[in-house]
Sequence to fold (207 residues):
Amino acid sequence: MATAVMIMGASGSGKSASMRNFKGSELGVINVANKPLPFKSDINTYNTDRYEVVEQLLKKASVKSIVIDDSQYLMANEFMRRAKETGYQKFTDIALNFWSLIDMINRELPEDVIVYFMHHTETDMNGNEKAKTVGKMLDEKITVEGLFAIVLKTVVVDGKYSFATKTNGSDSVKTPMGMFDEQYIENDLKLVDTKIREFYGLGKEKK
Fold:
């Protein structure tokens, strides 16, 4: 069983930039929004927003760390392609497709693989910060953050970019007890990747 991790935050808050310390041989990027990385790198990227292609890339990947960048556009782009359809079925389908991708990661990928979902946030009517979807009808079908055991959030204060590892009471940030000691850590996905692998013993031979 692979590990699916959500990294959520506003646009420009350091999600993509957090990949900067990975070598190209260590990380693969599935670029849903078809945008360039915000730093010079030899990291391999593949542009697609099609679930079937994303699943094929994940299953064939030789690297053990993979990012799905701007993952909310998997839902948003499907919604826009089906915008003229009437009725509620499209919302069920959009939720099912996103859920099925995470389910495939959990069930079919090797246990030493970590897949990071870089996801935008939005604020609900109660002032709580949550993972962005495509509206209330989809939220009734699926709670996105509930599909992940690890949810980090980007935080920017006085020009310093960080990841929150624990909830502030108004968001859905969560990490296993003992994985991170600090409330805020540097927005370094390589550091996060190392911590997760150490915590779960990923890549180590089983006794």
